[in-house]
TrEMBL record:
<feature type="domain" description="Acyl-CoA thioesterase 2 C-terminal">
    <location>
        <begin position="172"/>
        <end position="283"/>
    </location>
</feature>
<keyword id="KW-0443">Lipid metabolism</keyword>
<dbReference type="Pfam" id="PF02551">
    <property type="entry name" value="Acyl_CoA_thio"/>
</dbReference>
<dbReference type="InterPro" id="IPR042171">
    <property type="entry name" value="Acyl-CoA_hotdog"/>
</dbReference>
<comment type="subunit">
    <text>Homotetramer.</text>
</comment>
<feature type="domain" description="Acyl-CoA thioesterase-like N-terminal HotDog">
    <location>
        <begin position="29"/>
        <end position="113"/>
    </location>
</feature>
<keyword id="KW-0378">Hydrolase</keyword>
<dbReference type="GO" id="GO:0047617">
    <property type="term" value="F:fatty acyl-CoA hydrolase activity"/>
</dbReference>
<dbReference type="InterPro" id="IPR049449">
    <property type="entry name" value="TesB_ACOT8-like_N"/>
</dbReference>
<dbReference type="InterPro" id="IPR025652">
    <property type="entry name" value="TesB_C"/>
</dbReference>
<dbReference type="Pfam" id="PF13622">
    <property type="entry name" value="4HBT_3"/>
</dbReference>
<dbReference type="GO" id="GO:0009062">
    <property type="term" value="P:fatty acid catabolic process"/>
</dbReference>
<protein>
    <recommendedName>
        <fullName>Acyl-CoA thioesterase 2</fullName>
    </recommendedName>
</protein>
<dbReference type="InterPro" id="IPR029069">
    <property type="entry name" value="HotDog_dom_sf"/>
</dbReference>
<comment type="similarity">
    <text>Belongs to the C/M/P thioester hydrolase family.</text>
</comment>
<dbReference type="InterPro" id="IPR003703">
    <property type="entry name" value="Acyl_CoA_thio"/>
</dbReference>
<dbReference type="GO" id="GO:0006637">
    <property type="term" value="P:acyl-CoA metabolic process"/>
</dbReference>
Amino acid sequence: MKEPIHSLLTALDLSAPGVRTDEDIFTGPSQWMPQGRVFGGQVLAQSVVAATRTVDAERIIHSMHGYFLRPGDVDLPITFAVDRIHDGRSFATRRTQAYQNGVPILSMIASFQTQDEGPEHQIELPDGIPDPETLPSAAELLSGIDHPAAEAWATGRPFDLRHVGSPVYLRVEGERTTRQAVWFKTIEDLPDDPALHRAALAYASDYTILEPVLRRHGVPWATPGIKIASLDHAMWWHRPARVDEWLLYLQDSPSATGGRGLSLGRIYDRAGRLVASVAQEGMVRFPTPR
């Protein structure tokens, strides 16, 4: 098994030390990242796993809202405390706090629901989007590039990310638009556990969601002095999906102001089903021109 996938599965395989007062306690490792800060998608996914462990199997997560409170340290494990806020007939609500050194680094509330019948509609997938097999991978684009993060972007991630059009790793080409589209899937097959795929989808949802802000202003990730950090993240799971099959992430940034950028995302499977929606606001600070 390739190392990034092993790292992903290890991170999502939380341990339960058997300690519980008024909260359920779990622990999980941190994945290595080149800048020493825990990847936001990792702690989001782990928080989803922790909350899921405390509900009945027939109740499936349908939404979560999380705030990133402090940067996490990749050299330290993370402790997750789950508060069983409410259990109703159809819905259950959980709050997960992620801790390092005794202080919270993320606070998340998630809602779970038993499967139910109801009205069905969705925003349809636009036509004319090229297939992922026709697009270059990050590994192909960044091979041989001399940049501290290039190797991590190219081969260190458990997901294969393929931008429709040019990515914004090293430069921003083309129109300065607030929209972009990215295909993604894990680099290897995952186990069949649907709860694992829902958590892994939360993990991947944090990868490129703020890139429309960069694209609009023509500022790539590799810009010296750039500072970007996720502030909050919301996600809604609409329909089942496997993250080891290609998914299309459509993204748009409706606003950036006050050193913050907002991005919205819709995730579709190849059959055109809308499987999830995402919203994130992040701190975005570009270096001041001299």
